[in-house]
Amino acid sequence: MELRHIRYFLAVADAKSFTYAADALGISQPPLSMQIRDLEKEVGAVLFHRLPRGVELNAAGEEFYKNIHEIPHLIERATLSSRMASRGELGRLKVGFTSSSTFNPIVTMGIKNFKDQYKNAILKIDEAHTDSLIQRVNNGSIDIAFVRAEKSVIEETFDTLDINLTIQEKLSLVTSVNTVFPPQEELCVKQLSDRELILCPREYSVHMYETIMNIFDKAGCSPLMKQTTPQISSIINLVSTGLGYSIVPDSMRSIFSHMKGIQFYTIKDDEAYVPLSLVSRRYERSVMVKNFIESIVKMHKET
C-alpha cells in the first residue's frame, strides 16, 4: 500500500464520486478506479457501495476511513517538522550559565534574540557554577554554557570542548553608601584591604575567586575575608547593610546601581577583568547548537 492509494481513497470518499475525485486529483477516471480496486484487493475488503450515481462508504470503508484519514496530514506535519529540525529551528536546547553571567547582556539578550529568531525552539535553562557546567557540557547533560573561565584553562583540561567566544568583563567594587571614600569614581583594592571582602565560596566559582585573589596579589596586599555566600544577590544585600564590600562583574552595575544602600566604583588595578566564555562540545552535531553559537557570536560582533 502506497500513500497515493490513501490519497485516492480519501478523495473518492470525500467527493462520493469517482468522476469528481478524478477531477480534483487531476487524473482520468479509469486509472483512479483501478487504483481503488488495487487498494480493496490489498485491504481484503470492498470499501465502497457502487451506486447508480456516485459511491458511498460501506461498513469496511467507514472503518478504513476512520483509521487512515489523518495520515496525509500527519505526513505533511512530519515532513515540515523534519525540515525545521534539519535547519535547527525545532527541538530542545539545554543552556547553562553561572549566576554572575546572567547579568551580562551577551547572555540575556543573546538568549532572547535566539528565541525571537527560532520561535519553535524549546530552551531549558540551568544555573550552576563554572566547573559543574563545564563537566556537564563535556558529558552531554547540557548542550552549551556561559562560564567564568579562560579559554586556555578550559582547553588544558578538556580537549573535547570548544570555546566559541571569550569576552573580558571589567570588574567593579560595590560598597555600602556608608563606606566613606574620597569623592572619586575609581578605587584600588589596596584602599580596601582593611575592610571585609564578601565573595562566593571558592568551590562555587574557582576562576572568579582566583582572579580576584590575583588582583590583591598584584597590588601587594591581602583581602580581609570573614564570610562568604553562594548567591550574588545575597552578597549585594550584605554589602548594602555595611557588612563589607565585594568585587563583581561590571555588568551588575546596570542592574543594581539604583538599589538603595550601595555604590559602585571602577577598579583601577590592571588585572581587574574576568572572562565570560561560551563553551560547547568540539564535535557537536546539533544544528540548533550551531545556530545558537552563530547567533551569540554575531550579536557580540555587532555590539
Task: Describe the protein's architecture and organization.
Helix content is 45%, strand content 23%. The protein has 303 residues and is of the alpha/beta class. The chain folds into 3 domains: 3-69, Arc Repressor Mutant, subunit A; 88-167 and 276-302, Periplasmic binding protein-like II (D-Maltodextrin-Binding Protein, domain 2, 3-Layer(aba) Sandwich); 168-274, D-Maltodextrin-Binding Protein, domain 2 (3-Layer(aba) Sandwich). The strands form 3 sheets. Strands 3, 4, 5, 6, 7, 10, 11 and 12 form an 8-stranded mixed beta sheet that branches. A two-stranded antiparallel sheet has the order 1-2. Strands 8-9 form a two-stranded parallel ribbon. The longest helix has 16 residues, at 71-86. It is rod-shaped and about 105 Å long. The chain starts with a helix and ends with a helix.
